[in-house]
Design a protein that fits this description.
about 325 residues; alpha/beta; TIM Barrel; two-stranded antiparallel sheet; 10 strands
């Protein structure tokens, strides 16, 4: 395993970390066998992964993680979890009360069976509720930190509604965040200009989420989004073939477009770790091997940036 420093936290974290959200939610949406989920978590530790990312609203992920790590010495792993700052989670709604933040933190501690959360994150904040979230809730989270219930404070974006990272730019203007979570990948590179350089200068730790989720992992949908971008004039019409448009990346140890996506997603030095989510040991091992293997060639990285670097829109739900 390779390790990077998580910004100003000083934490030495694995560049590949295990997320317990996503479509699988550590197997809750696939095999639904907690014993298998535990084996995935234990295999992650064997592979050198030392950070696990979860959230209060990832179904039973916190509790599963807590039970899996119960007998593991606390100094062998780090936990980052999240709370939804609005009453309706990713659907918005009014800002929750300070008392609800405290209850969420206490509930997460109990589920995870730990005394202190390493990184406590505001989950899925949008530009239009950022100010209210900070003004109403940040002082409470600071008190939780002073009480020793959390170590560091982070924030995560809601990429599908904020593809140009406006909220994270607002967050970087304040200098109050230890970490932030961003979506960065082949089809969504806008963070490379809007967020990553500033985060690096300010020594903010960066988690990269969902580097290959969605269109990049589904060939028909990948073809559809690039076709739409061609029609919109975002990509030159003759720049890529209609079929298998990104297969030029498959060579010299890169065995799939998905593998290329993982390799691209960990390239920027400002990114502390890339989160992978799975409930399958073989899938986990494959992802780790990909991320620890040889990088993309400079030529391929440069071409990806030339093709998609100026596009700042979500590739989800194309019209």
């Amino acid at each position: 395993m390779k390790y990077r420093t998580l910004g100003r936290t000083g934490l030495n974290i694995s560049c590949v970390s295990l997320g317990t959200g996503g479509p699988s939610r550590i197997g809750q949406s696939t095999h639904r066998d907690e014993a298998t989920s535990h084996r995935v978590i234990h295999r992650a530790l064997e592979l050198g992964i030392n950070l696990f990312d979860t959230a209060a609203d990832y179904s039973d992920s916190e509790a599963i993680l807590g039970r899996a790590l119960k007998e593991i010495p606390r100094d062998q792993y780090l936990v980052a979890t999240k709370f939804a700052p609005t009453t309706e989670g990713d659907q918005g709604g009014p800002i929750i009360t300070p008392e609800q933040v405290i209850k969420s933190c206490e509930r997460s501690l109990a589920r995870l069976q730990i005394d202190e959360i390493d990184v406590f994150q505001f989950h899925g904040v949008l530009p239009d509720n950022y100010r209210e979230c900070v003004d109403q809730l940040f002082p409470t989270v600071e008190r939780l930190k002073a009480q020793g219930k959390i170590r560091f404070i982070g924030i995560t974006e809601y990429f599908h509604k904020d593809p140009s990272h406006q909220m994270l730019e607002m967050a970087l203007n304040e200098g109050i965040w230890d970490t932030m979570m961003v979506k960065y990948g082949i089809l969504n590179q806008s963070a490379e200009t809007a967020v990553l350089p500033r985060a690096k200068r300010q020594n903010v730790g960066v988690f990269n989420m969902s580097a290959v989720r969605s269109r990049l992992s589904r060939q028909d949908q990948l073809e559809a989004i690039i076709s739409r971008w061609k029609l919109a004039g975002l990509v030159p019409h003759d720049a890529l073939p209609e079929k298998n448009p990104l297969d030029f990346l498959i060579h010299d140890g890169v065995n799939s477009v998905v593998a290329a996506g993982y390799k691209f997603g960990i390239e920027p030095k400002a990114i502390s770790c890339l989160l992978v989510g799975t409930g399958n040991i073989a899938h986990l091992e494959e992802n780790v091997a990909t991320l620890l293997g040889s990088p993309l060639t400079r030529k391929d990285s440069a071409r990806i940036r030339e093709l998609f670097g100026c596009i700042a829109e979500t590739e989800w739900d194309p019209k």
